[in-house]
């Protein structure tokens, strides 16, 4: 029960990687606030799984892109549970793929807003409470796409590279308050959201991973729980890559 007594907020916790992170934190004793945007039923299912694994849980609807909504969410968490120890900025995604020449203003804004603006303002809202506590763990979910190009994902790559730089800047500014800020940049992770990307070319994608398989939500959990732990207190501004070696560049069949 590594996180007994800790309060965690996971954005985009209703499904996929965020759901897995929320359930894992709950399983280690944390009280987990499961943020979502649209799918209240899925968020409640995550909360039920947290409760079943021994933790306490609450769902909270808020659009991470709205500073006022995330401000209200952070205040509500503190009012209800007295503190916020861990923030996982997981809500994000590529929205949709498009070649550089076809990315229009709407797609650009939507992608940059969800991934970068959302991470920025959620962190700011929560950090204001963490500063008072003089304790906090912020973990931002970036992507390997922020470190290497991917076809038709310029907008997403730029957004996730921004998340990585934001992690470093926040790490420096929040260090005096004993708040650590780290990033996790996964490779292709098998979730419902990536099923269409992976379908029909899993073998080709696996070839890009020296460890011989695509990522699983459990691979991301390991990195997130490490950064959230007290053992990681001297690590800040860092990025871990649960990527099976993908970013090492050996992207030919072997
Ligand atoms: N899956 C991968 O292969 C992969 C690889 C590298 C990085 N990542 C990153 O990992 C994170 C999770 O990915 P995933 O595949 O698990 O995504 P997903 O299955 O699409 O889930 C996205 C989650 O974010 C929530 N969400 C979307 N927009 C939101 C908003 N504006 N405000 C609040 N919540 C919002 C969704 O809630 P509702 O359903 O309620 O709307 C959902 O819970 C993302 O940041 C993604 O970029 C994923």
Description:
The protein has a seven-stranded parallel sheet with strand order 3-2-1-4-5-6-7, sandwiched between helices. By secondary structure, it is α/β, with parallel strands linked by helices. Helix 1 packs parallel to helix 2. The longest helix has 29 residues. It has one domain: 3-Layer(aba) Sandwich (Rossmann fold). The protein has eight helices and seven strands; from the N terminus they run E-H-E-H-E-H-E-H-E-H-E-H-H-H-E. The chain binds NADP nicotinamide-adenine-dinucleotide phosphate (NAP). The site of NADP nicotinamide-adenine-dinucleotide phosphate (NAP) has 31 residues, from helix 1, strand 2 and helix 4. The site of NADP nicotinamide-adenine-dinucleotide phosphate has 31 residues, from helix 1, strand 2 and helix 4.
Please outline what is shown here:
The chain is α/β, with parallel strands linked by helices and 254 residues long.
Topology diagram in text:
Elements: E1 7-10, H1 16-27, E2 31-36, H2 40-52, E3 56-61, H3 67-81, E4 86-89, H4 105-133, E5 136-141, H5 154-174, E6 179-184, H6 195-198, H7 202-207, H8 217-228, E7 239-240
The structure holds NADP nicotinamide-adenine-dinucleotide phosphate.
- CATH architecture group name: 3-Layer(aba) Sandwich
Report the structural category: alpha/beta
Small-molecule binders here are: NADP nicotinamide-adenine-dinucleotide phosphate
Count of the separate structural domains = 1
State the end-to-end distance.
41 Å
The portion of residues assigned to helices is 40-55%
Number of helices: 8
Radius of gyration: 17 Å
Q: Please give the CATH class.
A: Alpha Beta
- Uncertain runs are none
Relative strand content: 5-15%
**SSE succession:** EHEHEHEHEHEHHHE
Q: Looking at CATH, which topology would you report?
A: Rossmann fold
């Amino acid at each position: 029960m590594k996180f007994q007594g800790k309060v965690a907020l996971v954005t985009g916790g209703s499904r996929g990687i965020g759901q897995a992170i929320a359930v894992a934190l709950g399983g280690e004793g944390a009280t987990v606030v499961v943020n979502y945007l649209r799918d209240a039923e899925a968020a409640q299912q995550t909360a039920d799984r947290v409760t079943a694994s021994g933790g306490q849980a609450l769902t909270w609807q808020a659009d991470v892109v709205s500073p006022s909504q995330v401000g209200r969410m952070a205040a509500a968490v503190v009012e209800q549970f007295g503190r916020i120890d861990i923030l996982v900025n997981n809500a994000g995604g590529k929205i949709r793929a498009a070649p550089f020449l076809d990315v229009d203003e709407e797609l650009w804004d939507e992608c940059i807003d969800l991934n970068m603006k959302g991470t920025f303002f959620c962190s700011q809202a929560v950090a204001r409470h963490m500063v008072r506590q003089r304790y906090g763990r912020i973990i931002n979910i970036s992507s390997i796409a922020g470190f290497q190009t991917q076809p038709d994902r310029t907008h997403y790559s730029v957004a996730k590279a921004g998340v990585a730089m934001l992690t470093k800047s926040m790490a420096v500014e929040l260090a005096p308050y004993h708040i650590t800020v780290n990033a996790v940049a996964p490779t292709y992770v098998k979730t419902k959201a990536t099923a269409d990307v992976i379908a029909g070319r899993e073998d080709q994608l696996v070839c890009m991973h020296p460890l011989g398989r695509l990522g699983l939500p459990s691979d991301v959990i390991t990195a997130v729980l490490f950064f959230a732990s007290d053992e990681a207190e001297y690590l800040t501004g860092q990025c871990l890559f649960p990527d099976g070696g993908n970013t090492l560049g050996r992207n030919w069949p072997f």
